[in-house]
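Data card: per-record layout.
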Amino acid sequence: MADINAYEGPAEAGFGDYVALLKPRVMSLVVFTAFVGLWIAPQPVNPFVAFCAVLFIALGGGASGALNMWYDADIDAVMKRTAGRPVPSGRVAPDEALAVGIALSGLSVMMLGLAANWFAAGFLAFTIFFYAVVYTIWLKRSTPQNIVIGGAAGAFPPMIGWACATGGIGLEPLLMFALIFFWTPPHFWALALFMKEDYSKAGVPMLTVTHGRKVTRRHIFAYTLVLAPFAIWLGLTSVGGPLYMAVSVVLNALFIAGGWRILRRSEEQAQADGYKVEKRYFRLSLYYTFLHFLALLIQHWVGGW
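The structure for this 305-residue chain is written out next.
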Protein backbone atom coordinates (compact mmCIF):
# COMPACT_ATOMS: atom_id res chain seq x y z
CA MET A 1 0.00 0.00 0.00
CA ALA A 2 1.11 3.54 -0.65
CA ASP A 3 2.82 5.49 2.10
CA ILE A 4 0.37 8.30 2.82
CA ASN A 5 3.25 10.61 3.69
CA ALA A 6 4.56 10.30 0.14
CA TYR A 7 1.69 12.38 -1.24
CA GLU A 8 1.03 16.01 -0.57
CA GLY A 9 -2.26 17.17 -2.05
CA PRO A 10 -3.24 20.75 -2.68
CA ALA A 11 -4.69 22.85 0.10
CA GLU A 12 -8.13 22.59 -1.46
CA ALA A 13 -9.02 20.00 -4.08
CA GLY A 14 -11.61 20.87 -6.70
CA PHE A 15 -15.06 19.33 -6.91
CA GLY A 16 -14.07 17.50 -10.09
CA ASP A 17 -11.21 15.80 -8.27
CA TYR A 18 -13.60 14.23 -5.76
CA VAL A 19 -15.92 13.17 -8.58
CA ALA A 20 -12.95 11.51 -10.32
CA LEU A 21 -12.15 9.77 -7.03
CA LEU A 22 -15.41 7.84 -7.37
CA LYS A 23 -14.41 6.41 -10.77
CA PRO A 24 -17.46 7.78 -12.64
CA ARG A 25 -16.78 5.76 -15.82
CA VAL A 26 -16.82 2.51 -13.85
CA MET A 27 -19.79 3.74 -11.81
CA SER A 28 -21.80 4.32 -14.98
CA LEU A 29 -21.83 0.58 -15.73
CA VAL A 30 -22.66 -0.17 -12.08
CA VAL A 31 -25.60 2.25 -12.19
CA PHE A 32 -26.92 0.99 -15.51
CA THR A 33 -26.77 -2.72 -14.71
CA ALA A 34 -28.25 -2.14 -11.25
CA PHE A 35 -31.09 -0.12 -12.77
CA VAL A 36 -31.82 -2.84 -15.34
CA GLY A 37 -31.78 -5.54 -12.64
CA LEU A 38 -34.23 -3.51 -10.57
CA TRP A 39 -36.52 -2.47 -13.40
CA ILE A 40 -36.97 -5.86 -15.07
CA ALA A 41 -37.56 -7.68 -11.77
CA PRO A 42 -41.05 -9.23 -11.47
CA GLN A 43 -42.00 -7.04 -8.52
CA PRO A 44 -42.89 -3.45 -9.58
CA VAL A 45 -41.12 -0.66 -7.72
CA ASN A 46 -42.27 2.89 -7.10
CA PRO A 47 -40.24 5.15 -9.45
CA PHE A 48 -39.06 7.35 -6.58
CA VAL A 49 -37.94 4.33 -4.57
CA ALA A 50 -36.21 2.98 -7.66
CA PHE A 51 -34.40 6.30 -8.18
CA CYS A 52 -33.24 6.38 -4.56
CA ALA A 53 -32.12 2.75 -4.68
CA VAL A 54 -30.03 3.26 -7.83
CA LEU A 55 -28.57 6.47 -6.38
CA PHE A 56 -27.42 4.69 -3.23
CA ILE A 57 -26.02 1.77 -5.21
CA ALA A 58 -24.09 4.34 -7.25
CA LEU A 59 -22.74 5.91 -4.06
CA GLY A 60 -21.66 2.45 -2.91
CA GLY A 61 -19.87 1.95 -6.21
CA GLY A 62 -18.20 5.33 -5.80
CA ALA A 63 -17.14 4.40 -2.27
CA SER A 64 -15.46 1.28 -3.63
CA GLY A 65 -13.63 3.40 -6.21
CA ALA A 66 -12.38 5.83 -3.57
CA LEU A 67 -11.11 3.03 -1.34
CA ASN A 68 -9.42 1.43 -4.34
CA MET A 69 -7.65 4.69 -5.26
CA TRP A 70 -6.57 5.19 -1.66
CA TYR A 71 -4.93 1.78 -1.41
CA ASP A 72 -3.55 1.61 -4.96
CA ALA A 73 -2.02 5.09 -5.06
CA ASP A 74 1.52 3.69 -5.18
CA ILE A 75 0.99 1.45 -8.20
CA ASP A 76 -1.33 3.96 -9.91
CA ALA A 77 1.52 6.48 -9.81
CA VAL A 78 3.78 4.34 -12.02
CA MET A 79 1.19 3.32 -14.61
CA LYS A 80 0.52 5.65 -17.54
CA ARG A 81 -3.18 4.78 -17.59
CA THR A 82 -3.70 5.72 -13.93
CA ALA A 83 -0.99 8.27 -13.08
CA GLY A 84 -3.41 11.16 -13.57
CA ARG A 85 -5.88 9.93 -10.96
CA PRO A 86 -6.57 12.32 -8.04
CA VAL A 87 -4.49 10.56 -5.36
CA PRO A 88 -1.27 9.61 -7.24
CA SER A 89 -1.24 13.03 -8.95
CA GLY A 90 -1.43 14.72 -5.56
CA ARG A 91 -4.74 16.51 -6.07
CA VAL A 92 -6.44 14.56 -3.26
CA ALA A 93 -4.60 13.39 -0.15
CA PRO A 94 -4.77 9.64 0.63
CA ASP A 95 -6.39 10.18 4.03
CA GLU A 96 -9.11 12.25 2.34
CA ALA A 97 -9.75 9.48 -0.18
CA LEU A 98 -10.02 6.97 2.67
CA ALA A 99 -12.42 9.22 4.58
CA VAL A 100 -14.61 9.71 1.50
CA GLY A 101 -14.66 5.96 0.84
CA ILE A 102 -15.62 5.04 4.40
CA ALA A 103 -18.23 7.79 4.71
CA LEU A 104 -19.93 6.93 1.41
CA SER A 105 -19.85 3.23 2.25
CA GLY A 106 -21.76 3.75 5.48
CA LEU A 107 -24.15 6.29 3.96
CA SER A 108 -24.97 4.20 0.90
CA VAL A 109 -25.64 1.00 2.85
CA MET A 110 -27.79 2.66 5.50
CA MET A 111 -29.83 4.66 3.00
CA LEU A 112 -30.37 1.67 0.70
CA GLY A 113 -31.67 -0.32 3.64
CA LEU A 114 -34.13 2.46 4.48
CA ALA A 115 -35.15 3.08 0.85
CA ALA A 116 -35.47 -0.54 -0.32
CA ASN A 117 -34.75 -3.42 2.08
CA TRP A 118 -31.97 -4.65 4.33
CA PHE A 119 -31.19 -7.71 2.25
CA ALA A 120 -30.19 -5.45 -0.64
CA ALA A 121 -28.30 -3.17 1.75
CA GLY A 122 -26.36 -6.11 3.15
CA PHE A 123 -25.58 -7.24 -0.37
CA LEU A 124 -24.25 -3.76 -1.18
CA ALA A 125 -22.09 -3.79 1.97
CA PHE A 126 -20.65 -7.17 0.96
CA THR A 127 -19.94 -5.87 -2.54
CA ILE A 128 -18.02 -2.85 -1.22
CA PHE A 129 -16.04 -5.12 1.11
CA PHE A 130 -15.33 -7.58 -1.70
CA TYR A 131 -13.98 -4.91 -4.04
CA ALA A 132 -12.03 -2.92 -1.46
CA VAL A 133 -10.62 -5.75 0.64
CA VAL A 134 -10.83 -9.08 -1.21
CA TYR A 135 -9.88 -7.69 -4.64
CA THR A 136 -7.90 -4.47 -4.01
CA ILE A 137 -5.99 -5.38 -0.85
CA TRP A 138 -5.65 -9.15 -1.25
CA LEU A 139 -6.05 -10.50 -4.80
CA LYS A 140 -4.77 -7.72 -7.03
CA ARG A 141 -1.17 -7.92 -5.85
CA SER A 142 -0.99 -11.61 -5.05
CA THR A 143 -2.34 -13.71 -7.93
CA PRO A 144 -2.77 -13.62 -11.73
CA GLN A 145 -6.36 -14.71 -11.06
CA ASN A 146 -6.97 -11.29 -9.51
CA ILE A 147 -9.30 -10.05 -12.22
CA VAL A 148 -11.12 -13.40 -12.45
CA ILE A 149 -12.17 -13.61 -8.80
CA GLY A 150 -12.24 -9.86 -8.27
CA GLY A 151 -14.54 -9.46 -11.26
CA ALA A 152 -17.38 -10.68 -9.06
CA ALA A 153 -17.54 -7.23 -7.46
CA GLY A 154 -18.52 -5.66 -10.78
CA ALA A 155 -21.04 -8.44 -11.42
CA PHE A 156 -23.04 -7.94 -8.22
CA PRO A 157 -24.93 -4.67 -9.08
CA PRO A 158 -27.73 -6.22 -11.19
CA MET A 159 -28.29 -8.73 -8.39
CA ILE A 160 -28.49 -5.88 -5.88
CA GLY A 161 -30.95 -4.06 -8.13
CA TRP A 162 -33.10 -7.20 -8.39
CA ALA A 163 -32.91 -7.62 -4.60
CA CYS A 164 -34.11 -4.04 -4.12
CA ALA A 165 -37.32 -4.96 -5.94
CA THR A 166 -37.89 -8.51 -4.72
CA GLY A 167 -36.01 -8.82 -1.44
CA GLY A 168 -34.13 -11.84 -2.78
CA ILE A 169 -32.43 -13.34 -5.82
CA GLY A 170 -33.33 -15.89 -8.50
CA LEU A 171 -32.08 -17.52 -11.67
CA GLU A 172 -32.33 -14.37 -13.78
CA PRO A 173 -30.05 -12.19 -11.59
CA LEU A 174 -27.63 -15.11 -11.23
CA LEU A 175 -27.33 -15.27 -15.01
CA MET A 176 -26.87 -11.50 -15.19
CA PHE A 177 -24.08 -11.95 -12.66
CA ALA A 178 -22.55 -14.73 -14.78
CA LEU A 179 -22.69 -12.57 -17.91
CA ILE A 180 -20.61 -9.81 -16.28
CA PHE A 181 -18.41 -12.20 -14.31
CA PHE A 182 -17.23 -14.19 -17.34
CA TRP A 183 -16.99 -11.05 -19.50
CA THR A 184 -14.62 -9.28 -17.12
CA PRO A 185 -11.44 -11.39 -17.60
CA PRO A 186 -11.27 -11.23 -21.43
CA HIS A 187 -12.14 -7.54 -21.26
CA PHE A 188 -9.21 -6.72 -18.96
CA TRP A 189 -6.81 -9.27 -20.46
CA ALA A 190 -7.31 -7.71 -23.89
CA LEU A 191 -6.31 -4.39 -22.36
CA ALA A 192 -3.33 -6.03 -20.67
CA LEU A 193 -2.08 -7.40 -24.00
CA PHE A 194 -1.22 -3.91 -25.20
CA MET A 195 -0.62 -2.39 -21.74
CA LYS A 196 1.66 -5.10 -20.34
CA GLU A 197 4.55 -2.77 -19.53
CA ASP A 198 2.33 -0.76 -17.18
CA TYR A 199 1.49 -3.82 -15.11
CA SER A 200 5.11 -5.00 -15.15
CA LYS A 201 6.38 -1.65 -13.84
CA ALA A 202 3.71 -1.60 -11.14
CA GLY A 203 4.44 -5.17 -10.06
CA VAL A 204 0.83 -6.26 -10.60
CA PRO A 205 0.75 -10.01 -11.38
CA MET A 206 -1.57 -9.72 -14.36
CA LEU A 207 -1.72 -12.88 -16.47
CA THR A 208 0.31 -11.23 -19.24
CA VAL A 209 3.12 -10.61 -16.73
CA THR A 210 3.16 -13.96 -14.95
CA HIS A 211 2.34 -16.34 -17.84
CA GLY A 212 2.98 -14.30 -20.97
CA ARG A 213 0.85 -13.06 -23.83
CA LYS A 214 0.48 -16.46 -25.53
CA VAL A 215 -1.19 -18.00 -22.49
CA THR A 216 -3.30 -14.86 -22.07
CA ARG A 217 -4.59 -15.22 -25.63
CA ARG A 218 -5.69 -18.78 -24.88
CA HIS A 219 -7.49 -17.67 -21.75
CA ILE A 220 -9.30 -14.88 -23.60
CA PHE A 221 -10.65 -17.27 -26.20
CA ALA A 222 -11.60 -19.87 -23.57
CA TYR A 223 -13.59 -17.32 -21.62
CA THR A 224 -15.50 -16.17 -24.70
CA LEU A 225 -16.63 -19.80 -25.13
CA VAL A 226 -17.68 -20.06 -21.48
CA LEU A 227 -19.44 -16.70 -21.54
CA ALA A 228 -21.68 -17.28 -24.57
CA PRO A 229 -23.93 -20.04 -23.11
CA PHE A 230 -24.73 -17.98 -20.00
CA ALA A 231 -25.55 -14.89 -22.06
CA ILE A 232 -27.85 -16.85 -24.35
CA TRP A 233 -29.40 -18.83 -21.47
CA LEU A 234 -30.50 -15.52 -19.97
CA GLY A 235 -32.54 -14.95 -23.12
CA LEU A 236 -34.54 -18.11 -22.41
CA THR A 237 -35.68 -16.96 -18.96
CA SER A 238 -38.62 -14.78 -17.97
CA VAL A 239 -36.66 -11.58 -18.67
CA GLY A 240 -35.58 -12.67 -22.16
CA GLY A 241 -37.26 -12.67 -25.53
CA PRO A 242 -36.61 -12.64 -29.27
CA LEU A 243 -35.04 -9.17 -29.34
CA TYR A 244 -32.59 -9.93 -26.55
CA MET A 245 -31.82 -13.32 -28.05
CA ALA A 246 -30.99 -11.81 -31.45
CA VAL A 247 -28.72 -9.19 -29.88
CA SER A 248 -26.99 -11.78 -27.71
CA VAL A 249 -26.36 -14.24 -30.54
CA VAL A 250 -24.82 -11.53 -32.73
CA LEU A 251 -22.68 -10.08 -29.93
CA ASN A 252 -21.41 -13.47 -28.80
CA ALA A 253 -20.62 -14.50 -32.37
CA LEU A 254 -18.56 -11.32 -32.74
CA PHE A 255 -16.93 -11.84 -29.34
CA ILE A 256 -15.96 -15.44 -30.09
CA ALA A 257 -14.68 -14.47 -33.54
CA GLY A 258 -12.60 -11.70 -31.98
CA GLY A 259 -11.22 -14.06 -29.39
CA TRP A 260 -10.31 -16.55 -32.12
CA ARG A 261 -8.43 -13.86 -34.06
CA ILE A 262 -6.50 -12.94 -30.91
CA LEU A 263 -5.71 -16.62 -30.26
CA ARG A 264 -4.31 -17.15 -33.77
CA ARG A 265 -1.97 -14.15 -33.71
CA SER A 266 1.67 -14.33 -32.76
CA GLU A 267 3.27 -11.65 -30.65
CA GLU A 268 5.36 -10.60 -33.64
CA GLN A 269 2.22 -10.01 -35.71
CA ALA A 270 0.60 -8.05 -32.92
CA GLN A 271 3.62 -5.81 -32.43
CA ALA A 272 3.97 -5.25 -36.17
CA ASP A 273 0.49 -3.73 -36.51
CA GLY A 274 0.41 -2.00 -33.12
CA TYR A 275 -2.02 -4.47 -31.51
CA LYS A 276 -4.86 -3.33 -33.75
CA VAL A 277 -6.81 -6.59 -33.39
CA GLU A 278 -6.48 -6.56 -29.62
CA LYS A 279 -7.57 -2.92 -29.42
CA ARG A 280 -10.62 -3.61 -31.63
CA TYR A 281 -11.53 -6.53 -29.40
CA PHE A 282 -11.19 -4.36 -26.31
CA ARG A 283 -13.48 -1.72 -27.86
CA LEU A 284 -16.01 -4.44 -28.71
CA SER A 285 -15.88 -5.63 -25.10
CA LEU A 286 -16.84 -2.12 -23.95
CA TYR A 287 -20.10 -2.39 -25.91
CA TYR A 288 -20.76 -6.06 -25.16
CA THR A 289 -22.17 -5.75 -21.64
CA PHE A 290 -23.92 -2.42 -22.23
CA LEU A 291 -25.79 -3.73 -25.28
CA HIS A 292 -26.83 -6.93 -23.51
CA PHE A 293 -28.38 -4.99 -20.64
CA LEU A 294 -29.91 -2.42 -22.97
CA ALA A 295 -31.52 -5.29 -24.87
CA LEU A 296 -32.91 -6.67 -21.59
CA LEU A 297 -34.40 -3.27 -20.79
CA ILE A 298 -36.00 -2.85 -24.22
CA GLN A 299 -37.24 -6.45 -24.17
CA HIS A 300 -38.94 -5.72 -20.86
CA TRP A 301 -40.73 -2.72 -22.37
CA VAL A 302 -41.90 -4.50 -25.52
CA GLY A 303 -42.67 -7.80 -23.82
CA GLY A 304 -40.79 -11.10 -23.79
CA TRP A 305 -41.61 -14.67 -24.62
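Known properties of this structure: The chain has two domains: 14-167, 170-305. Confidence is low (pLDDT under 50) at residues 2-11.

See the next section for split statistics.
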